[in-house]
Amino acid sequence: MMSATVIGDEALAAKFTAAAAALQARQPYWIADVGEMVKESIEEVIDMEGLYGVKEDTPAHVHLASTGRVFYQTKNGISVGFGKDHPAAWALELGSQPHAIVAYDAPMLAFQWPAGDWFYGSAVWHPGNKPYKFVNRGAANASLPILMFFWDELRTLFGGAL
Predict the structure, then answer these.
(1) Residue 69, SS3 per DSSP
(2) Are residues 110 and 147 in the same domain?
(3) Got the DSSP string for 10-34?
(4) Which of 1-15, 56-70, 131-145 has the highest mean pLDDT?
(5) b/e string for 60-75 if b means 16 or more Cβ within 10 A?
(6) Which DSSP symbol is given to 9?
């Protein structure tokens, strides 16, 4: 039979309690940091997929990544959002079925096809698109950076002893 004696367990428990309190006290700051990490990770997916949305040379152009924001911080969480004022954000996140695109606020549509020809008309048929899930994937991709962030926080709280 083998036995062990644990010494200093009270000191270790006190250190854990102090570390938990210090982490809790810094919560307003690290919640904001984590929100920024999620936002940046979503922006990376947008750029990787080339999800720019409306063509750059059109008046309605809004780069999807530029719609990202970190807002509405509460005591225990923060909101990260993308797509405000972007006409295709939902369709890029969730996908879309084939559908007509109709000129509503202008007498006609005018845009350049990827091959270089221009289209002018009152409507065009859009073939639909796959769901890119840029928000979902970006949030999931942020998991490892967030884990490393908290690992560093804990190392600091324990004096680098982890």
Answers:
(1) strand
(2) no
(3) HHHHHHHHHHHHHHHHTHHHHHHHH
(4) 131-145
(5) eebbbbebbebeeeee
(6) H
Domain interval for residue 114: 96-129
In a shared domain, residues 115 and 141? no
Helix axes 143-157, 9-25, angle to 10 degrees: 120
**Domains identified in the chain, total number:** 2
3-class SS at 96?
Answer: strand
Assess if residue 3 is contained within a domain.
no
Same-domain status, 135 and 120: no
pLDDT of 17-62, one tens digit each?
A: 888 888 888 898 899 999 999 999 999 999 999 887 655 555 555 6
Residue 51 makes CB contacts below 8 A (sequence gap 6+) with: 45, 64, 65, 92, 132, 134
pTM for this predicted structure = 0.77
| pLDDT, tens digit, 9 for 90 and up, residues 74-121 | 988 999 999 988 888 999 999 999 999 898 888 899 888 888 899 999
Q: Based on the domain organization, do 143 and 113 belong to the same domain?
A: no
Q: Residue 71: CB partners within 8 Å, gap ≥ 6?
A: 78, 79, 80, 81
Residue type, position 22, single letter: A
